[in-house]
Amino acid sequence: MKQLKLAYTTLLAKHGMGAALFIAIAVTLWVVVFITLPQLSMLNYSFRFNLPVDQLGTEADHYTLEQYRSFFFNADGSFNTLDITILIRTLIAALIVTVIDVLICYPIAYILAHGAKGVAARLMVIGLIIPYWINEILRAFAFRVLFGSTGVVNTWGMQMGLWDAPVDFIRADVALYCGLAYAYILLMVFPMYNAIEALDHTQVEAARDMGSPLWRVHWRVVLPMAKPGIVSGATMVFMLTAGALAAPQILGGPSSLWFTQLIYQWFNESSNWPRGSAYAVVLLVTCISFVLLMMRVFKVSVGEIGK
Amino acid sequence: MNRHTLFGGAYALAFFSFLFGPLVIMATTAFNSSRFPRVAPWECFTTGWFGELFGNARLMEGLMNSVIIGVGVVALAVPIGLAGALALSELPAKLRSMLYTVLILPILIPGVVLGISTIVLWGQITRGTGAGFLYNGYFLTIVGQITFVSAYAMLVFIARLQRFDATQTEAALDLGATPGQAFRKILLPFMAPAIGSAAFITLLASFENYNTTVFTVLSESTFTTALASKVRHGTDPSLSALAVIIITLTLVGALTNEAYQRRKEAESGGRASRSPLYANPVTRALTHPGIVFAILVTVIGGISYAGSQYDSSVCEAAVLQEKLDRQEELRAEQRARIEAQEAEQQSTLPKSNSAFGGAFGGLGGGTPAPEAPAAPKPESPSAFGGAFGGITAPKPEE
User: Mean pLDDT across the stretch B329-340?
Assistant: First the structure.
């Protein structure tokens, strides 16, 4: 509190009354009204029953663990394997997508930082950004066109004789994984690029001169430097993939639900807001703990994300 | 070393094929007259899907809503992001990293969670105060989006602030400016380019967002949510036409921006006179960003006009005719097969009432014919005919 006051006086002295007040009010509004209160309100809601409007505030309206219980257990007391499996599968899929993105983006980030020069580098940056400007829905749609039963992949595959009958890539979730990996490539490349670019290229050359093979140069020299970038990018990709809704809705197979789709169903199809809130809290807590765990494992702090 | 460059080039090529391949294929399907978005089989070159796109009332209404919401989000998120960046720059290290974590969190929180928490909070506020006017799709979407869009704006401002030379402000203060004057005359003008790019990024983020908006928009719809529901409930190539439009706009923007950046760099670096491109008055004028933009717009305008005049109905009629012919052919084949089957049955079952079976078989083959032009599916008449054939054949045995 004292420090906040101190910071405010510094702002006052530096930028004047108007600016300091504006900064203080805007940041408070953002932190309290837009970030904190909604989350608390959702948490509060997740501990309540789903009641009709006229029963709100009556005796029936008290705190309960019912919504969370129904996530873990069925009505008959057995484990709710259906929903728990969906959550675990979502996390594993998000992890797979993240790993794919790390693998395909690392060489590009390295080439961009140390290989490409002048026009080529500029073209590459523009080429990376342009797909990101296309609407998320349309990007998913593009993969549906690509992987549909009469899509390009099936047509070419059959023409080349790789397979005889059209393969259902949508049902096999291939389209979904590709679409998700595609969607967040930019978020992986740029943090990596920023980290790798800080590496002095003479270090790579020195290692090469000493006779180190290429893989060891990357393992011992480039990767340690890229680590904060990789973790930062991986965190963003993982969180966005686990929280994706549009791509699973458009590209997901009929038999595999994403956890966000479950939340969506509780809200929009079953109109059970407390249940939906509880599921949202479960998703949020699981994702954040997973990311924090990973950061502990790789020894990176939260402050490095987004840089 | 050369081998590595080659490998790097090949990898980059593969990588960018993955980035652009799906977009190119999707864009191509916009010009195929096939009702399902696909490249092969190619039927006719058509521009009709663009007309169908503009005729989609729900998308156009969503576009209007998106513009309203986008303006609201930019107007609020940019100042909030600026305030966040400035606040961070003055806080002591420990508090700073704490606030940074809190402010950056909305980018990482799943959009679904942000949307839910927003409608839950404002729903409760509405019930508590009776302020029903707050509970509408526009307001909730703006509030929900600001939560994380402001963080994007903040990141842009932080990057710009890192290059700010604080001694400028000190000099202004020493020379007798009030802190307020120094803020308005030194810091804000320095931040101006960042304000522009922050506004652009926030507008784009607001426009594109689906996960949060699909909850907060309630019964209204934005462009993106309307698009998503269209994709989910059956696809047609008018979406590819939309992609063509967006890709074109993006390319125009990127090329104009590139021309602008190049020129600025060349001029500020003092290389303008040395570079042959900028020394020659003709090429110098041609590479001016305004001219580049004008040329691109003219070319695209011309192509669009030519495209709107193009009539693919002759070709489409030809393709339809071809399909009908093919169908007729299949039906003839079918009939021949049924007759052959009957002939076989007649020979194996000599006691059966052959005249009866023959009449039914003839009917079975003949009845679908009048409906055929409406349903150009080669499989359906054959299945129908097959069923009839199957029914008629055993009957005489009774």
Answer: 88
